Amino acid sequence: MNKSIALTLAVLSMSVGCVYYEDCGAEDWEEGCELDELGFDDECLDGEDCEEDEAAPIELSFAPGHAEQGETIPAILTLEGGELDLSQATLVFYGPVDVLASVNEAGQITTILTIAEDAALGPVDLVLELPNGTAELLPAAFEIFATESGNSGSDWTDGSADDDECE
């Protein structure tokens, strides 16, 4: 092999993996060279997560949160925070609650639910299945009470109108 080629290969092999910056020499690092001048985010160097800003957490509310055995009631699942399209989502209750009908919109699902007459009393989890294969869990989103307990889901209002005023 030619001496100049061998010398070039030797020099190249010694510099592999090294990056030199014109504006930030070794003496500058001791003085606190500004990493953003080099295109780095200095917050990421201390072991912090350098991913892009995370999306706001998903916040869902379900109302009414209760009904009595044997009732058929309207209910609404509403997106309160975060970004999530509910227009193609499916409500699945893990308990004796059946979804009779649903109208899906981007920010809410309006539904008609029926509760079995012999339904076990207590909380029921709700799973929101999304078309991309993921799901959101609302633990104890709904509670079933005994018939005539005073916890009828049909007595619920969303607070948008005064119940005493009729037009």
What keyword list fits this structure?
single chain; 167 residues; mainly beta; 4-stranded antiparallel sheet; elongated
Topology:
Elements lengths: L2 H13 L10 H6 L27 E5 L2 E3 L3 E10 L8 E5 L2 E8 L3 E8 L6 E8 L5 E11 L22
Parallel strand pairs: 2-8
Antiparallel strand pairs: 1-3, 3-6, 4-7, 5-6, 7-8
Describe the protein in words.
- The chain folds into two domains: 3-46, no CATH class; 59-155, Immunoglobulins (Immunoglobulin-like, Sandwich).
- The strands form two sheets. A four-stranded antiparallel sheet has the order 1-3-6-5, with no helix packed on it. Strands 2-8-7-4 form a four-stranded mixed sheet, with no helix packed on it.
- The chain has helices spanning 3-15, 26-31, and strands spanning 59-63, 66-68, 72-81, 90-94, 97-104, 108-115, 122-129, 135-145.
- Strand 7 (122-129) and strand 8 (135-145) form a beta hairpin.
- With 167 residues, the chain is mainly beta.
